[in-house]
Amino acid sequence: MASVLKVENISHTNGTAALTIDSSGRILTPARPVLLAQGNVNGDVVYANNADITFATSGVNFGEFAQGGMSLVSNTRFTVPVTGLYQFQCTVYLNDSNTGCRIQLALNNSFNPTTTIAGVAQSGDAASRTMTLNHVLNLTANDYVTVRNASGGNRTVYNGYNHTYAFMYLIG
User: Residue 126's pLDDT is what?
Assistant: First the structure.
């Protein structure tokens, strides 16, 4: 025999709302860790090789936010509050005349290739370009991810809110 659970809200014993099901069946999770950060300068910024790209979660222009315990420490470290699988995406606008550019995600400030999460390389015509990384990451509470210039030299990033941004959220 099938059972039917008829509830609209599920919460922790301390009263924190964990899940709501509206009358249309949509599931809302208001405590889900999520963060949206934008470039924090509307202009060019030169980043040295292995320097972390900077972002902001408030005071820029485009609805940046953090909830559910997610944080952006020192404008570079996307820090997770709980262990789980996270979706991470970043887009960086390289406004640089160099033909070889690379951005990488690093876990817990590691320069070790075995713990560098992912890399993307762009080469070809010396022109501005947008580079995007998109990954699912298996992280432990208090791990952090940084986006860094891994091009082998200085690169110029247009760090404007419509050009350089990142988001991260818990998927399970």
Answer: 64
Name the pTM for this structure: 0.84
Does 32-170 carry CATH code 2.60.120.40?
Answer: yes
Structure tokens at 51: 């320097």
* 29-44 average pLDDT score: 88
Smallest CA-to-CA distance from 64 within 43, 20, 34 is with 34
**Domain extents in the chain:** 32-170
In the prediction, which pLDDT does 29 show?
83
Written in H, E and C, the secondary structure of 31-93 is CCCEEEEEECCCCEEEECCCCECCEECCCCCCCCEEECCCEEECCCEEECCCCEEEEEEEEEE
Which tokens belong to 3?
């059972």
Of the candidates 160, 164, 44, 43, which has an alpha carbon nearest to the alpha carbon of residue 103? 164
Q: Give me the residue label for tokens 């509050």.
A: 81
pLDDT of residue 147 exceeding 90, the answer is: yes
